[in-house]
Amino acid sequence: MAANFLLALLSKGAGVLASTPRELPEEIDDPEPVSALKRMGAVAASSTDGPRSSLMVRATRYAVLLPLVYRIGVLPIAWVWLVAAHGFVFSATVVAWAGVLGNLAGLVWVLRVPDRSGRATAWLLAADLVLAVGAGVAVSATAPAELYWAAAWVPFLNLTGTVGLWTMCRGVPAGLALVALGVPFQVGLLALGGQLSMWVPPLVSGTGTMLVAVVTAAGTLVLLGVATRLALAIGMRLGVAGERSRTERALHDTVLQALEAMAMHRGGDPAVELDRMRAQARAQAAELRRGLGTPAGGDQGGGQGLAAELTGLATEMAREGLRAQLALSDLADDTLTEARRAAVRDAAREALRNTLKHAGTREVVMRLAEHDGGIAVVIRDHGVGYDEDARPAGFGVSESMTARLTEAGGWCRIDSKPGHGTRVTLWVPR
After folding, report:
1. Which terminus of the chain has a lower count of CB atoms within 10 Å, N or C?
2. Distance between CA atoms of 166 and 178, rounded to whole angstroms?
């Protein structure tokens, strides 16, 4: 049975955030308004038995940022208060500013250095605890008696950061264990500083403050967990929708279009028609293999640039009966990413097939050129055209051509008038 997500998060710490279940309860990503308790209950019910994403493993390290930033902010404030209101204490000064520098170094390390195994993070936690204990001992042993209570706040605030850090990284039990160990530790510091005669009030307030640190860190963990699972649910929904859209476009641009082209009756020699259908079937088989990532012989233009892709596309359309005249500029189109080349190529194929089916002409001009800092493909025919206001957006335009270019960061524009043909402009950035 899968563990309850929030309970696992609170008991084990931020590392649980790296689990990525294959399915999440529908209530987590319910588009309808639901109560916060119901949504959090759905989050709590989600599982932690999914695979651990390497990206999420690295991202969970960012949970330590809050305690580090807390100490970077609070230690200088405590030191300024000590000096301004009470007096200068050398050991407390060293603890304050060494703590600021150490936490800044930890902050930079977390943001810049990957720790795939997690061993460095474990060593960081252990070193932080040792330094927090050493800071408390140093100040208690060296601070003047009249300044002891004010000076002791500097290492104590540093210690609360350590409690929060361990709670975030190792869970609430680890934080509570530090609080429990902190009780005799505080008594020992009071004895070291000669203040054991009035140990009850500082012990109660110190333990309460550390408990507040545990509760604050646990609350932050819960908020991180809920936000992460909500983002994961939304990402899974968008991924499913995007994959469905890509599958529909692929089927529309390959199988459906090929079947429609094969079904078009042109008359003539049956043997010639049979050869044409076989050629179209081979071309579509190669296109499907390319879409599935399967190597296929004769795959034209792969990795050679957009001009080569369009040349292969013109040859493919010639087998279907459309003569495409190419006008290719001398430009470095091989700098386009594979995703952008594929988007332009497939959108151009759809435009050419629309010409073949609807324009009433068998000739088209296809031009490749630089435009607005990107690369544009303009497809122009002198067919019957259509009224753009009267014609509803079909799947081929709204879902295939426009969607492909939009996903690649580009755009598609179609200009057409009855009797004046159609011009399709496809543009992608470099």
Report:
1. N
2. 8
221 with 317, same domain? no
b/e burial code for range 400-430 (CB count within 10 A of at least 16 → b): bbbbbbeebebebebebeeeebbbbbbbbee
Q: Which domain holds residue 423?
A: 305-430
What is the spatial distance between Cα 48 and Cα 19, in angstroms, rounded to a whole number? 6
CA torsion sign for 90, 93, 95, 101 is negative
Neighbours of 69 (CB within 10 A): 14
Buried b / exposed e across 30-46, counting CB within 10 Å, b at 16+?
Answer: eeeeeeeeebbebbbeb
pLDDT digits (tens, 9 = 90+) for 130-189: 999 999 999 999 999 899 999 999 999 999 999 999 999 899 999 999 999 999 999 999
Q: Let me know whether 2 and 130 are in one domain.
A: yes
> Rounded to an integer, what distance in angstroms lies between the CA atom of residue 16 and that of residue 234?
19
Q: What is the pTM of this model?
A: 0.61
In this structure, are 352 and 268 located in the same domain?
no
59 and 207 in a single domain? The answer is: yes
For residues 176 and 290, state if they share a domain.
no
pLDDT digits (tens, 9 = 90+) for 352-392: 888 888 888 889 999 998 888 889 999 999 889 887 766 64
Question: How would you class 234 by CB atoms within 10 Å of its CB: exposed for 0-12, middle for 13-18, buried for 19 or more?
Answer: middle
